[in-house]
Structure formats: C-alpha cells, structure tokens
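hey team, just a heads up i'm posting the complex here instead of the shared drive bc the drive is being weird again. everything in one block, sequence lines first with there labels, then the predicted structure for the whole assembly after. its two chains so it's a bit long, scroll down
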Amino acid sequence: MSVALITGASRGIGRAAAHRLAEQGYDLILHGHGAAGVAETAESLAGKYGVTVVAGSGDIADPQTSKALVRLAFENFKRLDALVVNAGTHAAGMLGMTGDDVIARLFAVNAAGAAYTLQNAVRLLARGENPAVVLTASVTGTQGAAGQAVYAASKAAVEGLTRSAAKELGPRGIRVNAVAPGFIATDMLDSLDEAGRAARIADTALGRLGTAEDVADVITFLLSTQARFVTGQIVGVDGGLTL
Amino acid sequence: MTELQRLRDAFRTALDLPADAPVDDLRYQDNEKWDSLAHMSLVATIEDEFAVMIDTDDVINMSSFTEAVRILGKYGVDVK
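-- predicted structure starts here --
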C-alpha cells in the first residue's frame, strides 16, 4: 500500500487529488489550514474508499506544520511514497496597490511553505517506493499576469524549487515535478470579477475554466510509475491558455 | 547490544568505515567520508536503527557523534 501526503487538501485541487489517490488505494495524510475542513475530507475518503486517512492542520507558512505532518506520516505508516505540495494562497491586485502584508503572506505560504514541506518530507520519501513529488505551480509563474505580479512571483519560486529539487533528489530516486494550472474553477478564483473570468475563458483554447479534477488527474499521473522517467518538469494544465 | 554500540555501528555502516574504526570523536566534515551526502545517509541509518524520525533542525545540528548522542536523547533513546 502506498502512502501520500497532500497539503491544502480540504478543498479545490488538493481535495480532488486526495480523491483520486484514495481511489487508487493510497493511504493518506491530509493537511488543511483549518482542522474542521480537512477532518471532514479525511472522514469521507476513509469511508468511501476504505483507506487509512490521517488529518493534520495548521499554517503551512510555519515550518512546524510540515514537520508535524511528516511526523504523522512516520508514526502512522513509517514511510512516504508520494507528496503533493499544494497548499497555497491567492491574492490579486495591481503592483502599486499591493500591501506589504499581502506580499509577505503570498511568499510565506506559496514559496517558503512549499520549501518547508519538501525539505521536511525528503528523508521519509527516500524510504518510499518509487517516490515522487508534485508541486502546484501556476501558469502565471512562467507567463506573468497583470494584477497578479506578486502571486506570479511566488509561483515562479515554486518552479525554481521544483527544478532544483529534481536535480538534487534524482540521484536518490525521488522524482519532482509540478503542475501549472491555468484558470481553474476553485475558490481561489473568487478574487477575479466576472469580467475577469470571462476574459480568461476567452483566452483558453478549450473554451472553459478547468476543474480541480482536470489538475488532479495530471498530478496522479505524475506520481505514478507511468511517469517514471519524468522529473523536473512544469506541466501545464491550462486548456491551451499558454498557446 | 547496547544503544552506544548500535549507534557506533550505525556511524560505521553509513560512513563506510571499518568495523573497528573509532567513531566517538568524529565530527562532521573532519572525516573525509562524512560529507553532506553521507550525512543524509547517516541520519537515515540512525532513524532506521532506532525507529525515530529526526526533525530537520536536529539533522542540521548533528555535527558530531557526541551531538548525535544528545539528539537521540530528545527522542527517548538513552545512548550509553
């Protein structure tokens, strides 16, 4: 039985990834910022798929949170085969209108939080079978987006982390990739107004917003042995937004 | 076998040292075999041997055999 840790699993892409992996028989450690949401997800997955699901909560910007999650993995399973570094936060605003606190928070969660999570999980992953990591980046990290400069910068950091970790951890048998979602219909798009959403759809070749499941399926693939020779890649899941 | 002997053996195994090599005075990077890569292997070997999960801060601070003894104490392993 394989074991996966997913951060940001109480909603959106993380929750969809948790469903997909549970469906495939993974035992899970799920993280959510708040205890109630992730506990509910854990309970429903355990009941539906008959897998063991352990829940942990806390601010992923605090390194103690990912330490505690990895400890949960160790105490419950003694191993970790897959890691989905998904916890993130979104804020939109023109550069001149973005406050210090927003800048600090975006980097603390999206960039530093991802680094803490990966750092703390590496040693347990090294004991796993076909260990693999998928981080959630963003199309904005490579393409940029007006009104999302700081968010884009924090996600560009995730890309750098992904590629560097792939080089560093490859010799230890750990693959590291990222998905770069385009515009996905999750809570994090709530900061865009209707006109903004319509404009994004118009820019997307497939003519719709993506779903969390669209992204979760690619995450699941990248974690699987079907992707055994894929590492250091930032895989766009954007319906052709970047074409 | 005592915890002290087990820890000594873990060091010898992870750092690829002879079975009778003295290790009690070893310090990180003083010995050519204890580099950053070997350090990760050493930590994994110690974790397996004593069934503990060592925090990243302690991994970074494990700069000598003596320090490893102290750190293991934090995890309930009394090395003596």
